[in-house]
Each structure stands twice: as C-alpha cells, then as structure tokens.
C-alpha cells in the first residue's frame, strides 16, 4: 500500500470545506480552533476546563460497552478516561448495514490516528471514541449497501419499513438479511479473504441483533484493539448524566435559536447553510407516534402527534423521563461534549459545515466548541486501475466528469495523426507521378496509355482500402482506451460520486483482507494532518 496526496481544490467538495482546509483564518468567526495549528491545539488542551465528571463518564461507558465484545485496549482506555487530565477525540456515524460506505471506516481510522498523535504530543491520555448514531431514525439511509460488480454500482437492501420508528437502534436485523447476504456474496465473489470477512459480518449483523448491537460489534471487532471506545445517547444513564443540558435546550430555546440564526445567516451568505433551524432541538420519543419534533405552541410546546406542554411541564417531564427525549443534529454534539472531555471531533465535510452554524450555540450551554478535525478523505486505486490510469491523458479529478465529456476530451487530446491529410498528400504524389509516367509510357507506345490509367486507378483504390484499414485500427485502439476510461471512472467516481461516499468498505476487505485498515493506519505519517485527499495504491 502506498499513499499520495491530491489537492481538494479540484474535487467535488463544498467551497466552505475547501476554505476550511486551505484558509482557516477566513472562517475563524465560525470555528474555535484551527485543526492544522499544532500550537493552538496544545494551548486549547492546556486551557481545557471540563465541567463534567470523568469518573462518572468512565462508569457509564463501562456499562455501555458491556454489550460489545471489546478488546482489552478499549477496556483500559475506559479506565483511563477517569483520569483527571484525560481528553477524548470523538467521531460518529449512522448504523449502516454491513458497516456502510467507506467513509465510516476512514473517519474511524482518522480518530484513532489523531488520538495517538495528541497523546504523544500532550503526554496525557487521549482516547478515541466512536459515538453511535443510535438515536437516528432514518432507516432508509442505513438499510442498503453498494459495491462494484463488473465495473457497475450494484446496491443491495433490506426491505423497507412502513411503521413509525422511534430510532433505528431499536430495530432488529430482519430475517431478510440472509437473502441480502446471498445476493451480495454473488457480487463480491470468493477470495482468500471472504471466509474471514463473512465470519466477522455474521458475528455482528445477524437476525435478532439490533442495528445498534450489530454496528457497534462490527466497529469493535475491527478497531477496539486500538483502544477505540463506543458511546451513544440512546441510553438512560447518558440521558440522566446530561439531563440539565436537555432541559436547558428548552429553557434557553429562544437564545439558542437566535444564536443559531445569526451564525447560520452569516455562513449561508458567505458559503451555504447545511442544516435547517427549528424552534427546539429536541424530539419526543413515543411508542405510538414514533420520534416527533417538538415545536413552539404559543408560549408552550407541542408535537405533530398531539402532545402538548407548557414550558415548565416539558422541563418537568424531561427531568422525570429523560429517555423520552432525543437530540437533533445540533444538540447531539452538546450532549456528547457535556458527557465527555472532548478536545476534538473528527468530521466529514457536511458535519464540518453544520458545526460552523453552532459556534455561538455552544456559549448558550457554557461550553466551547471542540477542534473540528477533517476526516481522512481517500480513493482506493486498485492494481488493475493503476496499470492503465497513466496511459490516458487525464488527471485523477477529471474522472469525476460525465463519461460523455471524458470521451469527447479523449478524442480531442489524442488526435495525433491527421489520417485524411496523410492520404490526401499520398494521392497527390501518386497523381503527379502517374501523370509523368503515363506520358513516358505513351511516348513508347500510345496504345498503352489506357493501361497506365488503369494502373493508377488500381493503385488509388488500394490506397483507399488502406485508408479504411488505418481508420479501423485507430478506432479499435480508441475503443480499447474508451473502455479503460469507463472502467477507471467506475472505480474512482462510481455513479458520478466520490468512491468513499458510494462503495462499501467490505468491498475492499473482501479483495485485500480484513486487515486492510490496519495497514492503512500503519502507513499514515506520524504528523499527518488530513489536509489533502489521499490516493491509496494497493
């Protein structure tokens, strides 16, 4: 495995993200700390003032991780979390079937790597945490997976669900997983690594396991040996520990909304607004109505399902039943940072954008925004692609263009020979020579002048046949190259999207081994800052 840097500038990322990577100073109004400024990060760590209880957080995570078969290294890190100077680096993701797209793995690898970097630099415990998105309710986004099959994107999915779902973490993996598995195995085909991969998957994603149990076990199987610890908010102990922040999200709702509005308008004017703002940042969980948004109702609150409260009644219910309430995308980081001594969060481009809306919101909870570290962004270049990609006249990012545009550009760039000009010149030479020789033959015997003309016509006819053969040869060569263009595009920008967003991580594990991510971790430089897209050559 070899890694090389590629600029984000020409890749399909937002202007906000590209600015974040290349010119953080332009965004200092939206973020607290430059993730590429080592001194600023050290200073933030030295000044870090955690208002929570590390010992209590350690106890909560001990219980939380008991549901997963975590490695001793992760157990040790949970114990180290209780140290008075411990810090954490967090990431998180939806609970995608079979581990979801490649970027989930890339986020996890980044978190482990940065935690290790900072522990060495700060000489204090820095623990990697994976926060399961166990209160997410978007089943549609997690029930399918995509792989490449004969250079085409093929998707496989569990059946849809029509009933109201409080959170996906409570859904059990259906029996239909067996049918999905059988179809997926046909696409992936058997390799030397298939048996080990499917043993790992079957150990996690089995019928009757919940999505939370399955996904958590999957991530633990791969990464708890590096000390990665699991966390999540669909847990009564977590809700109780962060109860005052849930209540504050209601008692200070107007302030919070105003701060989000101000920041969002500014970032929207200069770049784009990632997440829509609502009256509250809470959902109500109810078995009959599912997960419903809590909105203003005059001076009080209500849900679309008909639940109504005055503000003091809502605060009282949060106090008594915190597990009936679920944070939205803005409040989840607040609960995370209230529970854990979060120095940094590893974010994808979209998350980086919505964190930019939140800086002033943090102050409403007497918290500071953590360092937002960009995750590793990468494209895996397989050997079959590596062998042909340099034979074509395109830079890597150009394969993100439409295939029709790539084909036209190829023809324009590779028209090295003007076949018509070659044969036109040849014919002119023949005509000139034939005219001279015909006269010479006629001088010898006038009756042979016609035969000379036939000889010329025969020669020109053969020349036309030759020209046709040359055109066919060029077309054949072009067809070979055009097929290569299609193949390279299919693997690097499948479905016109970035590989990391489309193709499942298990596709590469099946081909290159379940330890491929261990090799990736070992190949990252000690000072890696993830400020470039990586091309990973296998």
In short:
This protein has a 5-stranded parallel β-sheet with strand order 6-3-2-12-13, sandwiched between helices. Strands 10-9-8-7-11 form a 5-stranded antiparallel β-sheet. It has 23 helices and 15 strands. It starts with a strand and ends with a strand.
State Rg. 31 Å
Number of spatially distinct domains: 2
The structure class reads alpha/beta
- Chain-averaged pLDDT: 93
Q: Tell me the number of helical segments per DSSP (H or I, 4 or more residues long).
A: 23
Reported for the largest beta sheet, the result is:
5 strands, parallel
Distance between the termini: 5 Å
**Which strand order do you get reading across the main beta sheet?**
6-3-2-12-13
Shape: elongated
Topology:
Blueprint: E1 2-6, H1 15-22, H2 38-47, H3 54-65, H4 72-81, E2 87-93, H5 102-122, E3 126-132, H6 139-142, E4 144-149, E5 152-157, H7 177-188, H8 194-204, H9 211-223, E6 229-231, H10 236-241, H11 243-251, H12 253-270, E7 282-286, E8 290-297, E9 300-303, E10 308-309, H13 311-320, E11 325-327, H14 331-339, E12 342-347, H15 349-355, H16 359-364, E13 371-374, E14 378-381, H17 383-389, H18 403-414, H19 419-444, H20 449-492, H21 499-502, H22 505-512, H23 516-523, E15 533-537
Helix pairs in contact: 3-4, 8-9, 11-13, 18-20, 19-20
Characteristic terms for this protein:
five-stranded parallel β-sheet, 538 residues, 23 helices, 2 domains, five-stranded antiparallel β-sheet, alpha/beta
Task: Report what the structure shows.
- This protein is of the alpha/beta class.
- The chain folds into two domains: 2-246 and 341-377 and 498-537, no CATH class; 386-495.
- The protein has 23 helices and 15 strands.
- A hairpin with a 2-residue loop joins strand 8 (290-297) and strand 9.
């Amino acid at each position: 495995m070899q890694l090389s840097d590629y600029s984000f500038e020409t890749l399909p990322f937002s202007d906000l993200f590209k600015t974040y990577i290349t010119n953080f100073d332009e965004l200092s109004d939206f973020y607290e700390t430059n993730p590429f400024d080592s001194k600023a990060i050290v200073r933030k760590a030295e000044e870090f003032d955690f208002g929570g209880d590390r010992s209590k957080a350690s106890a909560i995570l001990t219980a939380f991780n008991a549901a997963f078969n975590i490695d001793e290294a992760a157990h040790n890190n949970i114990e180290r979390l209780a140290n008075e100077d411990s810090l954490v680096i967090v990431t998180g993701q939806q609970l995608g079937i079979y581990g979801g797209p490649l970027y989930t793995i890339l986020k996890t690898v980044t978190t482990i790597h940065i935690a290790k970097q900072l522990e060495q630099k700060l000489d204090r415990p820095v623990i990697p945490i994976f926060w399961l998105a166990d209160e997410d309710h978007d089943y549609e986004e997690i029930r399918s997976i995509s792989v490449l099959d004969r250079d085409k994107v093929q998707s496989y999915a569990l059946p849809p669900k029509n009933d109201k779902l409080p959170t996906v973490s409570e859904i059990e993996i259906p029996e239909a997983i067996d049918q999905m598995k059988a179809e997926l195995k046909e696409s992936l085909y058997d390799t030397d690594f298939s048996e080990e991969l499917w043993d790992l998957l079957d150990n996690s994603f089995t019928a009757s396991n919940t999505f939370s149990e399955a996904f958590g076990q999957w991530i633990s199987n791969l990464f708890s040996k590096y000390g990665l610890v699991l966390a999540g908010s669909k847990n009564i102990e977590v809700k109780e520990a962060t109860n005052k922040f849930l209540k504050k999200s209601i008692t200070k709702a107007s302030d919070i909304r105003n701060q989000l509005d101000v920041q969002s308008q500014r970032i929207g004017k200069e770049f784009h607004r990632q997440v829509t703002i609502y009256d509250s940042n809470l959902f109500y969980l109810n078995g009959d109505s599912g997960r419903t948004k809590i909105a203003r109702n005059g001076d009080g609150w209500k849900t679309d399902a008909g639940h109504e409260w005055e503000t003091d009644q809502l605060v009282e219910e949060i106090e008594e039943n915190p597990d009936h309430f679920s944070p939205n995308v803005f409040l989840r980081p607040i609960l995370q940072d209230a529970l854990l001594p979060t120095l940094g969060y590893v974010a994808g481009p979209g998350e980086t954008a919505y964190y930019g809306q939140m800086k002033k919101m943090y102050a409403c909870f007497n918290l500071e925004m953590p360092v937002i570290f960009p995750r590793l962004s990468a494209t895996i270049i397989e050997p079959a692609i590596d062998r042909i990609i340099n034979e074509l006249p395109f830079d890597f990012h150009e394969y993100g263009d439409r295939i029709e545009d790539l084909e036209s550009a190829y023809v324009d760039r590779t028209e090295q020979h003007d076949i018509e000009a070659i044969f036109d010149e040849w014919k002119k030479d023949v005509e000139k020579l034939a005219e001279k020789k015909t006269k010479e033959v006629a001088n010898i015997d006038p009756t042979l002048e016609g035969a000379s003309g036939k000889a010329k016509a025969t020669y020109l006819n053969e020349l036309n046949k030759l020209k046709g053969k040359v055109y066919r040869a060029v077309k054949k060569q072009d067809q070979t190259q055009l097929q290569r263009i299609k193949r390279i595009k299919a693997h690097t920008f499948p479905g016109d999207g970035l590989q990391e967003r489309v193709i499942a991580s298990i596709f590469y594990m099946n081909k290159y081994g379940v330890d491929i991510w261990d090799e990736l971790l070992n190949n990252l430089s000690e000072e890696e800052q993830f400020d470039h897209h990586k091309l990973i050559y296998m």
